[in-house]
Amino acid sequence: MARERSVVTRACKYALVVGAVLITINHGDALLAGEVDTRRVLKMLLTVLVPYTVSTLSSVGATLAARQAARR
Questions:
Q1: Helices (H), 1-72
Q2: Pick from 55, 45, 41: nearest CA to 12
Q3: Buried b vs exposed e over 18-45: b needs ≥16 C-beta within 10 Å?
Q4: How far is the C-alpha of 46 from the C-alpha of 67, rounded, in Å?
């Protein structure tokens, strides 16, 4: 279910938007100063992964709950 096209598409959209905001907040000063190394890039990728994961888990949970409710 986590790999369904609609879930992945939604999670990617949230990850890009929320991830960009979080990267700006957490790493904006380093980006402006040109202080970007491999370690910081890894942290930025992980920053984007968090909203992707949260969105995916939320979508799967909501879908499962809706399916269970429909069975009742």
A1: 5-33, 38-71
A2: 55
A3: bbeebbeeebeeeeeeeeeeeeeeeebe
A4: 31
Please give the chain's pLDDT, 72 residues, in tens. 999 999 999 999 999 999 999 999 999 999 999 999 999 999 999 999 999 999 999 999 999 999 999 998
Residue 2, both tokens: 């986590």
Place of tokens 């999670």: 11
Query: Rounded distance, CA 44 to CA 24, Å?
Result: 10
Distances (CA, A) of 45 to 6, 26, 40: 22, 12, 9
